[in-house]
Amino acid sequence: MDILITIFSLIILLFSIMLHEIAHGNIAYHLGDPTAKYAGRLTLNPLKHLDPFGSIILPLILLLVTFGRGPIFGWAKPVPINPYNFKDQKWGTLKVAIAGPSMNFLVAIIFGLLIRFFPFLPEGFLVIFSLITVYNLAWGIFNLVPIPPLDGSHILFTFLPEKFTQLKLALQQYGMFILLFFIFFGLTWIFQGSVFLFELISGQPLIF
C-alpha cells in the first residue's frame, strides 16, 4: 500500500503543479499576454511542464531522505509570462499570481467535499481523493509563501512600498537559496496545515 500511495502521490503532485501553471498561463492569456500559449504551455501534456530538478530530482531526494514515508514535493517549469503585454498593467501580475494557488484550492475543495458527502465510496477512491485534496492544499499554501520565485512574492511585491526596494532586490537575489532551505525545514508545517484544512473541508480524518 505504501508503494501505491507513493506512486499516486507522484502522479497527483505532477498534475497539481501542472494545473497550477496552466492557470497562470490562461489568466495571462486573457489579460493579453500570449507568451505561454505560443510556448505550448497551455496543455495537459505533462512532458511540456516537467522541470528536471523540481519535477524529478527533488522528489527523488525527498523520497530517499524520508525513506518513502514523508511528503513528496516539487515544482514544474514556470510558465513564461510577459507582464508588459497585460491590458491591466497595475493588477495584471497580481491576478496571474493568484490564479495558480486559486486553482489548487478549487481542486482541493471539490475533492474534499466529495469525501464529505460520499464517505461510503470504496476506500481506494477515498485515499486517492484524500491525496488530491492534501497535495493541492499543500501546493496552494506553499506558493503563497512570499519567497521568490513563488506566487506569494509577486503578491507581496505588488503591495510593497518603494522604500522596501532593497528588501525586494535581496529576496530576488537570494530567493532560491531561502526557498530550498524552507523546503527542507519548513515543508512539514505546510503539510500539517494542509491536513488540518483537509479535515475541516472533508469532515473526515486522513486515512493514510
Describe the 3D structure:
With 208 residues, the chain is mostly helical. It is 68% helix and 0% strand. The protein has helices spanning 2-30, 35-38, 52-65, 92-117, 123-143, 151-159, 165-202. Helix 1 packs antiparallel against helix 4, helix 4 (92-117) packs antiparallel against helix 5 and helix 4 (92-117) crosses helix 6 (151-159). The protein is globular. The model has no long low-confidence stretch (mean pLDDT 92).
List the SSEs and their pairings.
Elements: H1 2-30, H2 35-38, H3 52-65, H4 92-117, H5 123-143, H6 151-159, H7 165-202
Transmembrane segments: 56-76, 96-118, 124-145, 174-198
Domain Peptidase M50: 124-182
Subcellular location: Cell membrane
Short synopsis of the structure:
With 208 residues, the protein is an all-alpha fold. It is 68% helix and 0% strand.
